[in-house]
Amino acid sequence: MAVPTPGPAALEIVVPAYNEAERLPAGLARLCAELAALPCAARVLVVDNASTDATPEIVRGWDGPVPVRLLSCERRGKGAAVRTGILATRAPYVGFCDADMATELSALRRVLALLNAGRPVVVGSRRHPESVVDGYARPLRRLGAVTFNRLVRDLADGVADTQCGFKFFAGPLARAAAADLRTTGFAFDVELLAHCVRRGATVTDIPVVWHDRPGSTFSVRRHSLECLRDLIRIRAELAALSRRDRVRLPVPVPVARADGAPVPTAPGAGQR
């Protein structure tokens, strides 16, 4: 069994969870094992999003190689749950991933290296040319994803896949952006990235190995109209903010890396 790295957490990962009693145990086991092998202390924050199953009981009784904390968010919506989790973090680096761990967690080492190098936002992208994607070829889902991402690229620093549930940030930047987050539904990723970009951050996308897992609560048919309405509102609100912002807001970044060394200044890690 891996021995947890002592000391305060350098990396905190938020896992939003709505009725995830079936998928969460295996997902948490994989995540905790991967985090325990990292060269820094880490912990997990599971945000129970008003579940009606045994999700909170599973988290309360969890015993693993890294600390797992349960938070509650009664306001329904993945965006609301992620916002609650990020605002509860204190670590120099934070991120979030889905309860099903559809993205293979071996990518965490690359994420940590990029954050340590001063990259303020690192996101997994299923459309990266080096990514390996299993089960994402259903025509309606693929068409919806391509259309959605073309509509929002300008808001998210040109990233081709804004909806992959594997995103990591400099902690102070994430908390500042999450405080401005108003979208509670599935389009929240776009607004969160846009609030990072308006602070001058650049977004680094990385290849991932991604597996489609059964049990997703997102439906193209049921949620497309909601996402479109959210995008219209997000654009309007960002336009109003840009008129009020006389200069780009500085990117809040950690003062030290996960290993305690000073964080270097990388492109996109400060005002631009």
TrEMBL record:
Please provide the record's keywords in A-Z order: Transferase
Question: What GO biological process terms are annotated to this protein in UniProt?
Answer: protein N-linked glycosylation
Q: Which residues cross the membrane?
A: none
Name the Gene3D superfamilies for this protein. Spore Coat Polysaccharide Biosynthesis Protein SpsA, Chain A (3.90.550.10)
Spell out the InterPro entries in the cross-references: Glyco_trans_2-like (IPR001173), Nucleotide-diphossugar_trans (IPR029044)
The residues covered by the Glycosyltransferase 2-like domain are 13-153
Tell me the leader sequence span.
none
Q: Does the keyword Transferase apply?
A: yes
- Protein name stated in the entry: Glycosyl transferase
**Organism of derivation:** Actinomadura rubrobrunea
